[in-house]
Design goal:
The complex is a heterodimer of chains A (317) and B (290).
Chain A (H helix, E strand, L loop, with lengths): L1 H8 L15 E3 L4 E3 L6 E3 L30 H4 L32 H19 L4 H17 L7 H15 L6 H7 L4 H15 L9 H11 L3 H16 L8 H15 L6 H8 L3 H11 L3 H4 L17
Antiparallel strand pairs in A: 1-2, 2-3
Chain B lengths: L1 H6 L1 H4 L38 H17 L47 E10 L6 H7 L3 E3 L6 E6 L4 E6 L3 E7 L2 H17 L7 E13 L6 H7 L4 E2 L8 E5 L4 E5 L4 E7 L2 H17 L5
Antiparallel strand pairs in B: 1-5, 1-6, 2-3, 3-4, 4-5, 6-10, 7-8, 8-9, 9-10
The chains are: A mainly alpha (317), B alpha+beta (290).
């Protein structure tokens, strides 16, 4: 045992000769390792694993010799260090028919192929609804956990990716409705719902319940309603749930009905069809929820609301 | 007394009743024609297709069921047939005299009994069937091989539907009690037998029982899902009810805001009752106060 420890101690360790205990600071720009105590440059030509930096000297040159490749994503890909031969440039790489001579560009990392595909799909879906990078990263992490667990192996990867996207949005506090995820995915709402429940069970996590306020800002800005109406609708929906006027109704339907009431009381009146289109709710559903909140309309509005149409003139459906 | 009289043709010559294909085991010996004071024996599980005795058994068990307290159940396998006017010498294990499960003194029982709404059972008729002849000759049978590979037959008396497969296996759904499910399965088997197939009645098993009840007060589902997170799933976008997966009797309960509860996944009646007794105090804690 003593022998092995001596062997480990004899491995070369990069350290400053004057301060062997100091932890070296990496200067990635120059590729140096610098001692923080005395400033001595200890190592140099350290390989930079960050993304390649751009050179602005010659914009037209497509192959920049200082490029070392794409940024590594160690968290998600498992530290794959394999390389591949790129497509040839120049005339010699093409044979007589115009096909490239060296064709083997496939079979890079078959183990992670499905995962890479799913990440691409997640990025595509998120781009369609303009989701920020943190949600995409969270979705990728969730997908990786589910994929490695293999408990949902039989399910379509796209379905799992869509469900992971839904869960990530919920976990970040900005939930998207199932219908919104359906709009950017090719998977049906039923299948996404099934995968969602399976993933929660597999990862043993839970998500918070959705509330009406989570969707107000998005729906109202998509409808082009001013901030006053949005705040009024938020207040109406919250009050309606507190007073238990709409027991058992989905929060989306209650939110849509609240937006309808607030917009009808303001100058910007929106029809039920328009609101139903944006919220993904049928207009009969809005009508049903509206009928439930209409009797107490006077109590539901915020006290400082400026009515364009007074409460008694609100449409009665 | 009339039950005894109607039984007389059966044990008289010990001949098989018409239509039964297998040799019949006599349920009651000839000496029991008159009240002899013999203790009632548990009825053997026969594979014969005597509908008469089946219906009589059903009538007796219905009487027993009405007397049974909610904490009791009778399993589908062994039942005692109490002859009228004949007091047993010693109580057989499942007579409704005393409750088997003692009520805990701390919490009183809910007083609500879940009603059974649907029973799904399977039985093996023991012979290969030609679905086309069954569909053509039987009444109330539909068969669409392109859509589904079984004959769908319906009878009116216990209002049930049966799926009859060509392997001889049959699924019977829609009955409201275990006895009715067995009777209906026997009726279907009788229909198949009358069409000329050597049908038997093997391995009758109840696969699923669904019950429902009303706790009569509204429930705060949001509170319930917060405290019982590992058992509950409440997604208003997907389904308006809370799905509670109980572990101890493995039962799934659908709990709604109105206070209605649906219990499913039981193999025996007692599981439904036990699950409801377990959930009732929890639901009382989440009663809506307004």
């Amino acid at each position: 045992i003593l022998k092995t420890s001596r062997q480990i101690n004899s491995l070369p360790k990069v350290q400053c000769p004057n301060h062997p205990d100091a932890i070296l600071v990496e200067d990635y720009r120059a590729g140096d390792m610098i001692c923080p105590e005395c400033g001595l440059v200890v190592g140099d030509r350290v390989i930079d694993v960050g993304s390649e930096w751009r050179t602005f000297t010659n914009e037209k040159a497509t192959n920049d010799p200082s490029r070392v490749g794409d940024a590594q994503n160690p968290l998600l890909n498992g530290g794959d260090l394999s390389t591949m031969i790129s497509k040839g440039t120049g005339a010699a790489s093409f044979d007589e028919f115009g096909n490239s001579k060296y064709q083997n560009r496939r079979t890079m990392s078959s183990a992670d192929r499905a995962m890479l595909n799913a990440f691409k799909e997640i990025t595509t879906m998120s781009d369609r609804i303009n989701l920020p990078r943190n949600i995409i990263d969270r979705t990728n992490n969730l997908f990786k956990q589910v994929y490695e667990q293999k408990s949902l192996k039989g399910r379509s990867n796209d379905a799992i990716a869509s469900a992971c996207l839904y869960i990530a949005c919920r976990q970040e506090g900005v939930p998207r409705t199932f219908k919104e995820i359906c709009a950017v995915s090719r998977i049906s709402k039923k299948e996404i719902g099934r995968c969602f429940k399976l993933i929660l069970k597999a990862l043993e996590t839970s998500v918070d319940l959705i509330t009406t306020g989570d969707f107000m800002s998005r729906f109202c800005s998509n409808l082009g309603l001013p901030k006053q109406v949005q705040m009024a609708a938020t207040y109406i929906a919250r009050k309606a749930v507190e007073l238990d006027l709409v027991p058992g109704r989905s929060p989306i339907s209650v939110a849509a009905a609240a937006i309808y009431m607030a917009s009808q009381a303001s100058a910007e009146k929106k029809t039920q069809k328009e609101i139903g289109d944006i919220a993904g709710v049928a207009d009969v559903t809005i009508r049903q929820s509206y009928r439930l909140i209409y009797p107490r309309a006077a109590d539901l509005f915020p006290p400082d609301f400026k009515f364009d149409t007074p409460v008694d003139k609100l449409p009665q459906l | 007394m009339e039950q005894n009289n109607s039984l007389t043709p059966f044990p008289q010559g010990l001949a098989s009743p018409p239509g039964a294909m297998t040799p019949v085991m006599p349920i009651f010996s000839p000496t029991m024609r008159y009240n002899t004071g013999l203790t009632p024996q548990p009825v053997q599980n026969t594979n014969s297709l005597s509908l008469l005795e089946e219906q009589q058994r059903q009538q007796q068990q219905q009487q027993q069921q009405q007397q049974a307290t909610p904490q009791l159940y009778h399993s589908q396998v062994s039942t005692t047939t109490a002859l009228p006017g004949n007091t047993p010498v010693h109580t057989t294990p499942l007579t409704p005299m005393t409750p088997i499960t003692p009520a805990t003194p701390a919490s009183e029982s809910s007083g609500i009994l879940p009603q059974l709404q649907n029973i799904v059972s399977t039985v093996n008729l023991g012979c290969k069937l030609d679905l086309k002849t069954i569909a053509l000759r039987a009444r109330n049978a539909e068969y669409n091989p392109k859509r589904f590979a079984a004959v769908i037959m319906r009878i009116r008396e216990p209002r049930t539907t049966a799926l009859i497969f060509s392997s001889g296996k049959m699924v019977c759904t829609g009955a409201k009690s275990e006895v009715q499910s067995r009777l209906a399965a026997r009726k279907y088997a009788r229909v198949v037998q009358k069409l000329g197939f050597p049908a038997k009645f093997l391995d009758f098993k109840i696969q699923n029982m669904v019950g429902s009840c009303d706790v009569k007060f509204p429930i705060r589902l949001e509170g319930l899902v917060l405290t019982h997170q590992q058992f509950s799933s409440y997604e208003p976008e997907l389904f308006p009810g809370l799905i509670y997966r109980m572990i101890k009797p493995r039962i799934v309960l659908l709990i709604f805001v109105s206070g209605k509860v649906v219990l499913t996944g039981a193999k025996v009646r007692a599981e439904i009752y036990e699950a409801f007794e377990n959930i009732y105090p929890i639901l009382k804690g989440f009663r809506k106060t307004t």
